[in-house]
Design goal:
This protein has about 290 residues and is an alpha/beta fold. It is about 40% helix and about 25% strand. The strands form four sheets. Strands 4-3-5-14-6 form a five-stranded mixed β-sheet, with helices on one face. The chain has a five-stranded mixed β-sheet with strand order 11-8-12-7-13. A hairpin with a 2-residue loop joins strand 9 and strand 10. It comes from Amaricoccus solimangrovi. It holds the Pfam family LysR_substrate. Keywords: DNA-binding, Transcription, Transcription regulation. InterPro entries: LysR-type_TF_proteobact-type, LysR_HTH_N, LysR_subst-bd, WH-like_DNA-bd_sf, WH_DNA-bd_sf.
């Protein structure tokens, strides 16, 4: 298995362009990565990387090896999964990306259950609201909310998502309760920061009504907006998986219930291809079963 581990280290160095970053990604020492590379170069009789002030870059021989090494490792992983599947076991590391707020509020307990039910499965989750490139970031799957862009990735709908306007009882007692989306112009709105700006949308008589919220408090964190709303600093538009507990506990109240936001959806996406790794299939089936797939 030394040759396999040497190939793993080689591929990680090629991806990260650094022995230090490769060692960090693999959870081993830099000296171990260096020894594996030296052993691999000796075995092939060729230098595989050139050292630069910024890290390393593959030589011509290294470039020739990269694709083949990735294919060897992928086929080995597939073989392990096929053998394990015969005994009903799921093996390997599942690398998943998910939105921060949804991950913290809803996905975390589900992944804990999935890990408990599959002792051979390791789960690594990156909770972040940024757009994730599945291929370059080497994630096995990604969870997304909203309208999906056109792509070759395979997507499965997991559940509907709808946002609600909410505010604390204290805020509504002080500032009054808006009766129509246009009334929000006279209120402090807690804004979610996005690159293109944020517009709140409502459905009225079958038509969409847009409103550009204004307010002194804004954040890229849904949790910050939730806390501000509970503290009485303004009106927030929050997905139901975030505000539901606070509404049930009467710390927040629904605002504009007759003007719902357009329904969105929760999706799981994976790279294109006919072969679906067992770990991705198990994750997808589990989430569809728990969330309804609607």
């Amino acid at each position: 298995m030394d040759e396999i581990e040497d190939l793993r280290s080689f591929v990680e160095i090629a991806r990260s362009r650094s022995l230090s970053r490769a060692a960090e990604a693999m959870g081993i020492s830099k000296s171990m990565v260096s020894r594996r590379l030296t052993r691999l170069e000796a075995g092939f009789g060729a230098r595989l990387f050139d050292r630069t002030t910024r890290g390393v870059r593959p030589t011509e021989a290294g470039d020739e090896l990269i694709t083949r090494a990735e294919r060897i490792l992928a086929e080995l992983e597939e073989a392990r999964e096929v053998v394990a599947a015969r005994s009903g076991t799921v093996l390997g590391t599942l690398r998943l990306a998910a939105p921060l707020a949804y991950g913290v509020h809803a996905l975390t307990p589900l992944l804990g259950e999935l890990a408990a039910a599959n002792p051979g499965l390791e789960i690594e989750v990156d909770f972040d609201d940024r757009f994730v490139d599945l291929i370059e970031s080497r994630f096995d799957a990604v969870i997304r909310i909203g309208t999906l862009p056109d792509s070759s990735f395979i997507a499965r709908r997991l559940a509907p998502v709808r946002a609600h306007c909410v505010a604390s009882p204290d805020y509504l007692a002080r500032r009054g309760r808006p009766a129509h989306p246009r009334d929000l112009a006279g209120h402090d709105c807690l804004r979610y920061l996005t690159r293109g700006g944020s517009e709140w949308e409502f459905v009225s008589a079958g038509r969409r009504v847009g409103f550009r919220p204004r307010g002194r408090l804004a954040s890229t964190s849904g949790d910050a907006i939730l806390r501000w709303a509970i503290a009485g600093y303004g009106i927030a538009l929050l997905p139901s998986f975030m505000g539901g507990d606070a509404i049930a506990g009467k710390r927040l109240e629904r605002v504009l219930p007759d003007f719902p936001s357009p329904e969105s959806a929760l999706w799981i996406m994976r790279p294109p291809g006919g072969y679906v790794p067992a770990k991705v299939r198990v994750l997808t089936d589990f989430l569809v079963a728990r969330l309804g797939g609607g």
